[in-house]
Amino acid sequence: YPKQLCGKLEAAANFCFEGVYKEELPWGNGHINDTYRVTFENEQGVKKHYILQQMNKSIFKNPVELMENIVGVTEFLKRKISANGGNPERETLNVIPAKDGKPYYVDSEGEYWRAYVFIENTVSYDLIDNPEILYEGGLAFGRFQSMLADYPAKTLHETIPGFHDTRERFETFKKAVEEDVCSRADLVREEIQFVLDREEIVDCFQDLLRSGKISFRVTHNDTKINNVLMDKDTKKGICVIDLDTVMPGVAMNDFGDAVRIGASTALEDEQNLDKVWCDLELFEACAKGFIEGCGGKLSQEEIKLLPMGARLMTYECGMRFLMDYIQGDIYFKIHRPGQNLDRARTQFKLVSDMEHKWKVMENIVKKYM
Ligand code: ADP
Ligand code: MG
Ligand code: MG
User: Fold this and answer.
1) What pLDDT digit, counting tens, does each position of 333-351 carry?
2) DSSP per-residue letters across 282-346
């Protein structure tokens, strides 16, 4: 390929798209992959859209295994959705194979690409301003959980090893504080203490897994609400997307991460902590949606632990932001100095707020048991 045809044009030419290439547009607000909507037109002049994505090789080191996960899960979902009388082209991602039959294409520069059926007439929300949307998001992630309840979770590859190994992350955090390569630890003693004071929660899910009280499930692990496509007209949750981090995990963490972002009253890097808390109306909407979506597949034990999922995910995330600040901002991109510290502080504010509201949160989830 000539240089100017490399990348997306080369990729577009190598998937099983119908018709002739018309155009491509950058699409959506994802932060991980480079996403395009490409348009093809058939002989009758009918246009069809597809999603074309360049996968992020620096985060996901093994794109082949990753696509194996996605094909496994989406084929399984397609069968489930058809059996339930749903529309398998709209309610799950559909992988479009490359012309050589593989579920990805490697371009001449070594970049990995994949393609999906474009799901028309949907929106995805980056900011949540009302409980109905969070309810729909929770419902979609719950249904995802429920439809995959009998998928053999152990056969999935770990696309990011130790992603929610909170103990491991805690130990790495302590080491970073000791090494203190940027001499920043003294500036954040209070925040460090906040993390250390809560060591008791670090092992809670891993202990329950070891004792067999809860079990591994297929989890999504990136349950931001913008990873649910909603119908433009009805605003109903249609399809869970962004399956890069589908791995074995615990259901409470998927719920927890949705609450961490969805039920917070402020952006992740808000500097005025008076604006940051966990809104109980939003929390309830998310819990109601998630539990209903799970449709009886969660155990009583798991439902009881949902507030802990919210607390633990928010704590873990705050710990990661703080560690990155201490190490000199090497993992999470920053757009201003101190942004990772601000992010850590909002997470810890949310954790404290949840601790104050603990009984209420527990009572909310009990209502839906
Ligand atoms: P990232 O990992 O970068 O967040 P996503 O897979 O979430 O990538 O895709 C980015 C955005 O592209 C989504 O938020 C959504 O708006 C849009 N998108 C992704 N897949 C589809 C699809 N099959 N149909 C329609 N829009 C999609
Ligand atoms: Mg996404
Ligand atoms: Mg993603």
Assistant:
1) 899 999 999 999 999 999 9
2) HHHHHHHHHHHHHTT-S-HHHHHTHHHHHHHHHHHHHHHHHHHHHTTS-SS--SSTTHHHHHHHH
Q: Using a CB cutoff of 5 Å, list residues around ligand 2, an ion.
A: 30, 227, 242
Which atom from ligand 1 is nearest to the alpha carbon of 118? 24
CA of residue 162 relative to chain centroid, distance: 15
Q: Alpha helix locations (H) across 100-165?
A: 131-147
pLDDT at 30: 83
The Å distance, Cα 223 to ligand 2 centre, comes to 9
DSSP conformation class of 97: P
Q: Measuring from atom 2 of ligand 1, which residue has the nearest CA?
A: 32
Express each pLDDT in 274-286 by its tens digit: 999 999 999 999 9
Q: What is the pLDDT of residues 100-151, one digit of tens each?
A: 999 999 999 999 999 999 999 999 988 787 999 999 999 999 999 999 999 9
Cβ(346)–Cβ(352) below 8 Å: no
Helix/strand/coil for 225 = helix
Cα of 116 from ligand 1 centre, angstroms: 10
Q: Rounded to whole angstroms, how far apart are CA atoms 226 and 99?
A: 30
Q: Which ligand is nearest to the CA of 31?
A: 1
Question: Cβ neighbours of residue 276 under 8 Å, at least 6 residues apart?
Answer: 264, 265, 266, 270, 346, 349, 350, 353
Q: Which ligand is nearest to the CA of 53?
A: 1
Hey, what domains does the chain have and what are their CATH numbers?
Answer: 3-118 (3.30.200), 131-367 (3.90.1200.10)
Please work out whether the CB of residue 124 comes within 6 Å of at least one atom of ligand 1.
yes
Q: Which of 30, 29, 92 lies closest to 59 in space, CA to CA?
A: 30
* CA-nearest residue, atom 13 of ligand 1: 28
Q: Cα of 241 to ligand 3 centre, how many Å?
A: 8
Ligand 3 ion: residues within 5 Å (CB): 32, 242, 244
**Beta carbon of 94 within 6 Å of any ligand 1 atom:** no
